[in-house]
Design a protein that fits this description.
This protein has about 400 residues and is of the alpha+beta class. It has helices at about 1-10, 25-35, 40-50, 55-70, 125-135, 150-165, 265-270, 275-285, 305-310, 365-370; strands spanning about 20, 110-120, 140-145, 180-190, 205-210, 220-235, 240-245, 250-260, 285-295, 295-305, 345-350, 375, 380-390, 395-400. Helix 5 links the parallel strand 2 (about 110-120) and strand 3. InterPro entries: Serpin_dom, Serpin_fam, Serpin_sf, Serpin_sf_1, Serpin_sf_2.
Length: about 400
C-alpha cells in the first residue's frame, strides 16, 4: 500500500497545485472491490498495481479485510514497536510565573471509510459479489441511470454525504460519458486530536512560501507546539522529518521537509522515497525536545484516479473490449456486454488545527525560553504522511504547497 501511495503521489503531481492530498487506505479499498470481481489480465494488472504477487481470492481478501478491521479497531495489533514511543524526554517549562491553563484534549478519533458501487440500472449485478463486498469491505450498491446525469450525480452525492455524516457533500459533478455503466466512489473522512495540543494563543498570521524562500509568500495561521516529539534527520537526502502524534496513540502525522524546501525539491523527494525508506526513517526516529511552527490547514482534494491507475499499468478495466469484471455480473445474465469502469472518484477532507484548546493561555516568551533541541518551522513546501503505526497503513499522503487549500 505504501508503494501504491508513493506512485500515485508522483503521478498526481500538478504544475501549480496548492496541495495534493489523497488517502492510500481508501484507494486500496477501491482496488479490493475491483479485485473481488476481476479475472484474467484485469486481475493481473490490479495485483501489479499493488506490487504484490498474485494469490487466490480467499487468501488475499481475507488478509485485506483483516487489515482494514485492525485499522478501524480501538485496540489494533501492532506489526512492530516503534522505539520512540517508549522513550522519554523533558520540556523546560519556564513560564515566568505566568499561570497557564492546560487544555483538555478529547480522546476520540473519527475515521469514516466508505465505498460505493453505482451501476447502470439494466446491468444485473451479482448478488453473491455484492454480499461478499459488503461483508468484507462494507460496500453498498445502487442502480442509477447514467443517461440522466443530474439524477445519477444526486444519488452518488447523497451516498457520499450519508457515508461521511455530512462531511463530504459532493464527490461528482455528473460529467459522465454516454457509455458510462459503472462508477466506483471512495470516501474517507478523518478527524483526530493531537496527543499534545498546539498553543492557541500563539497562533498568528505568518508568511508561508509556496515556492520556497525568496519567492512570493502568502499569509497563513501558524500554530506553535513545544513538546517531546519524534525526529529524524536523513543526512543523505538533506531531509528533516518530525512526527506529530494523535491522542489515540496509534496514528501519527509525519512531516517531511527538505532543507530550504521548494516545489522542485518536493518533487525530487517524491521520486526518491520508497516504502522501505519511509519505514526505516520512522524506525530511526528519536524523541527530541522540539519547537514546531506548523500551519493551520483545511485541505479538500477531489480526484479522478483514472490517469494514476493507467500509469500504474491498470488499463484493461477502462475499455469495454478488454475489461474482465464479469464476476460482478450474474452468470445467468443474457446481457453479453462487458462491464468496465469509466470513472473512479476519490475525495478527501483533512482538517489540521489546534483542536480542543479553548481556555488555554500562554505568551510568546514561552517560545523564546523553551530549551529545544529541534526547531521545525514548516513555512515552506512539505510532505505529510499520516500513518496508522500499528498496521503501517498510510491514511493520507501528499504534498502541501499552500496550506490555505
Amino acid at each position: 500500500v505504501v508503494e501504491l501511495a508513493l506512485s500515485i503521489g508522483r503521478f498526481s503531481a500538478e504544475q501549480n497545485s496548492g496541495s495534493e492530498i489523497f488517502s492510500p487506505a481508501s484507494i486500496m479499498g477501491v482496488i479490493n472491490l475491483l479485485l473481488l470481481g476481476a479475472g484474467g489480465n484485469t486481475r493481473t494488472e490490479l495485483f501489479r498495481a499493488l506490487k504484490v504477487d498474485e494469490m487466490n481470492n480467499k487468501e488475499y481478501h481475507t488478509t485485506a479485510a483483516n487489515m482494514i478491521k485492525n485499522l478501524l479497531s480501538r485496540n489494533p495489533k501492532a506489526l512492530d514497536q516503534l522505539q520512540w514511543k517508549s522513550e522519554t524526554c523533558t520540556v523546560e517549562e519556564d513560564y515566568s510565573d505566568e499561570e497557564v491553563d492546560q487544555p483538555t484534549t478529547p480522546k476520540s478519533t473519527i475515521l469514516h471509510i466508505a465505498n460505493g458501487l453505482f451501476t447502470q440500472q439494466n446491468l444485473p449485478v451479482s448478488s453473491k459479489y455484492m454480499r461478499i463486498a459488503n461483508q468484507l469491505y462494507q460496500a453498498s450498491s445502487s442502480k442509477v441511470n447514467f443517461q440522466d446525469p443530474i439524477s445519477s450525480a444526486a444519488t452518488i452525492n447523497k451516498w457520499a454525504y450519508q457515508a461521511t455524516k455530512g462531511k463530504i457533500q459532493e464527490i461528482t459533478s455528473g460529467s459522465f460519458s454516454p457509455n458510462t455503466n459503472m462508477v466506483i466512489a471512495s470516501s474517507l473522512y478523518f478527524k483526530a486530536f493531537w496527543k499534545k495540543e498546539f498553543l492557541p494563543k500563539i497562533t498568528k498570521p505568518k508568511e508561508f512560501f509556496p515556492e520556497g524562500q525568496g519567492r512570493p509568500s502568502v499569509l497563513v495561521d501558524m500554530m506553535v507546539l513545544i513538546e517531546c516529539l519524534p525526529y529524524h534527520y536523513e543526512r543523505s537526502m538533506g531531509l528533516r522529518m518530525i512526527g506529530l502524534p494523535y491522542s489515540d496513540n496509534s496514528t501519527t502525522m509525519y512531516v517531511l521537509m527538505p532543507q530550504n524546501s521548494t516545489r522542485d525539491k518536493i518533487r525530487n523527494l517524491q521520486n526518491q522515497l520508497t516504502a522501505t525508506k519511509i519505514d526505516t526513517m520512522i524506525s530511526q526516529m528519536k524523541l527530541r525536545t522540539s519547537t514546531v511552527s506548523f500551519p493551520r490547514m483545511q485541505l479538500t482534494s477531489s480526484t479522478n484516479l483514472e490517469r494514476s491507475f493507467r500509469r500504474l499499468g491498470v488499463k484493461s478495466i477502462f475499455n469495454s473490449r478488454t475489461s474482465d469484471l464479469q464476476t460482478m455480473l450474474e452468470s445467468s445474465s443474457p446481457n453479453k456486454e462487458r462491464l468496465f469502469v469509466s470513472q473512479i472518484s476519490h475525495k478527501v477532507n483533512l482538517s489540521v488545527d489546534e483542536q480542543g484548546t479553548e481556555g488555554a493561555a500562554v505568551t510568546m516568551t514561552l517560545i523564546d525560553r523553551a530549551s529545544s533541541a529541534v526547531y521545525f518551522k514548516a513555512n515552506e513546501p512539505f510532505l505529510i504522511y499520516v500513518r496508522h503505526d500499528p498496521t503501517r497503513l498510510p491514511l493520507f499522503y501528499g504534498a502541501v504547497f499552500d496550506p490555505r487549500g
